[in-house]
Amino acid sequence: MYRSEADALDAEVLECIERGHVPDFNDLALRIFAHQLRYNQPYAKYCASRGVTLERMPESWDAIPPVPSAAFKEAALVTFEASRAELAFETSGTTQGRSGKHYMENSTLYDAALLAGFHDAVLRDAPQRMRYLLFVPNPEERPQSSLGYMMRRVAGFYGDGHDCWYLSGDTIDVGRFIDDARKAALEDIPVCLGGTAFAFVQVLDALAERAISSLALPPFSRVMETGGFKGRTRMVKREDLYADLARMFSIPQNRIIAEYGMTELTSQYYDDEERVKRPPAWLRPRVVAPSGKTLPDGVVGALAHVDLGNRSSCIAIHTEDLGVATGDGGIILLGREQGAELRGCSLDAEQLRALQRK
Amino acid sequence: MTALQRVPLRKIVRAIAGAAERWSDGDFPPRVRILERIAERTGYSLPVVEYALDRLFFSITQSDLEATIRSELGTLEILDGFAEHAGRPQAWAAPVGRVCMIASRTTIGVAITPAIFALCAKCDVVVKDREDALAGAFFDTLAEELDELKGAAQALVWSSDDEHAPDLSAFDAVVAFGSDSTLKAIGGALRSGARFIGYGSRASAGYVTRESLTDSQAKEIANGAARDLVLYESEGCLSLHVLFFEHGGGVDANRFCSMLAHAVERANVEFPLARENAGVSARIAQHRDLAAFRAASGTGAVYADADAAYALFLDPPKREPPQFLPRTLGIITVDDPSQALAYVRDHRLPLEGFAISSERPDVTQLAIDAGAVRLTQFGELQHPPLAGHHGGRPRIAEFIRWIDKT
Asked: Hey, are the CB atoms on A344 and B235 less than 8 Å from each other?
């Protein structure tokens, strides 16, 4: 019963991904949700505590109770036996250093979603296979990193077979990167640089230390930036970072594409030219008030996501990330307000963590 | 020689108490003029700002100022010149010199109390004022009460990268409030031998004993705890950040949490929420929903409203420290004080206040062992007396230099 239901849903979602179109998002979302209520016990119990059960189903996809992303640290949120997971990625450990896991029953949906999303957003005008020079965790070293996995799949599928990885632990091998970038320029092979914003800042700093003010990459080269500055002490304004990247690598800013994803999701958002985050057809965002109600367009709230790709885990996820809806399906991401100043003279969580580290 | 050195102490005390009395009046024009500016700066609602000003200025009375000085120095006369006291040789509590006060940007008048004791010690005082100019406005009233205070008390506005910022190495003592890193930076700018009086960020806790858990007493405790929680959005060092609840009383933890939730809702009416901050609300909602997720799986419980105006977490995992979010509180059930102490130590919570529901030696010992510097009852946590030892330190003794005559 479970197998046939799961396989049928997977096939349906896969078809949507391949076509880039979901004929009836609401219907499919509710059927996946019902499947999860049947087989994902922790999620079903949570939904029951919100008054949602198989007998009292929501009327539309935007009323599916989103599970808080931190719940992935509390339980295996799966419709199947977690030990059978084909993929398992670790969520970030920002809460007391504990991380959770997002288990996926098979890699088919995950791979299809990431490849299709990446192609549509990043490779749309790429004339040939590119070389991937990457500042993300190497899956050989960190198999639990969803970002590393994603870029390995992308490079393997769309790359020229000479992808290079420069991040090891917290260290970036900038010397090797410079050699590889110059080689690609000589060979006239367009390059896709992939990395977190913080990694790019480190690379630019290291290049500046070596008095390198330009490392021009071949035409059609591009940058995929993701991940922001979470947990880092040095932050740079995104527009400044992009300007520096564009100058250093002779890449127009419209070929610097920001990705927004999270381990708890199967699918990713990518910026359009207006820097609005666009989801693929099988992913929908909601901007919600603390009450869980959807906020009007333009009003700041927390982001929740309904991802059909999460068939074997949780279809709806609620985050602390802030954003606004643009009214046409996109969102503007505002981050987590990490720099917001608290009033008063009490400790805050950051200070306590600093004390505990001492 | 400082501006106040030749002014008799009693005259200074009378002037300070007189100015405070005028500021205690809600219709005092300078206070009325500044009220909204404070609310704008801090984000707190007007009733909370009014309350903060009332608490601050009502506590500054001549009798309390004199009593505090006597308790620390023995006599008042010792600040006016050489005097004998309690069989000790003649001594003079001379001013330490020029004193600078730097308060965090987000508190209300926290520098005013140390400033008035520094003035009582006859020091020259410079306070780093904020956008609302509260310190400056109060100093103007002081100057109206006593001419000499005009030259002694100055409020200046500067930022850390301001080229006109006072040179901290020119001060004989610096009082600063803030995070560890702020205090470290300020302390590093002082000249050798200067006194550094740093008040770091701290937290407060409470302990409900089983003996106090009768129906009527539990309600009273809940009402007090609610005030301790909601005032100043739980962001003061004396706000209630974690509550230990002892098993075995006549009211169980769930019922107590229910009482507390009602009390918080009432307190939210008296002290309305601060200006909304979407990021903070999102974090509270995330914690609330996570607690609901845990509760659905049989661990703990959550008492909260839909808008995340408050959230009470019953028995959150002990591995988690307090959340330090506005109007959120973890209630941790314990069998005895040793479990509460273990929690405080595990999370290295630097404690300022400790509210106790009933006197019991082992709970008092817990508060002491946990490092608290103020023990009180619920509902009083955020009302430290003028003579209290904020941060475990004296009020006036740090602003004087003893000179013995033998």
From this structure: yes
| A292 contact partners, CB below 8 Å, separation of at least 6 | A65, A66, A318, B285, B306
CB-CB under 8 Å, A75 with B278: no
Residues of A in contact with B371 (CB under 8 A): none
A342–B contact, CB cutoff 8 A: yes
Q: Does A52 touch chain B (CB under 8 A)?
A: no
- Whole-number average pLDDT of chain A: 91
In chain B, which residues have pLDDT < 50?
none
Tens of pLDDT, residue by residue over A39-82, are 999 999 999 999 999 999 999 999 999 999 999 999 999 999 99
Which residue in A has a C-alpha nearest to residue B326's C-alpha? Answer: A342
Task: Give pTM, 2 decimals.
Answer: 0.91
Query: Nearest CB to B297: which of A42, A98, A289?
Result: A42
> Is the separation of the CB atoms in A317 and B210 below 8 Å?
no
Residues of A in contact with B203 (CB under 8 A): 346-347, 352
Contact B382, B359 (CB under 8 A): no
Measure Cα distances from B166 to B127, B158, B190 in Å: 10, 8, 12
List of domains in chain B = 9-201+386-405 (3.40.605.10), 203-372 (3.40.309.10)
Sign of the dihedral through C-alpha A317, A321, A326, A330: negative
The pLDDT tens digits of the residues spanning A123-150 come to 988 888 999 999 999 999 999 999 999 9
Nearest to B289 among A318, A322, A347 (CB): A318
Position A339 scores a pLDDT of: 39
In order of their start, the domains of chain A are 2-86+282-335 (no CATH), 109-260 (3.40.50)
* Statement: residue A230 has pLDDT above 70: no
Chain A residues closer than 8 Å to B295 by CB? 49
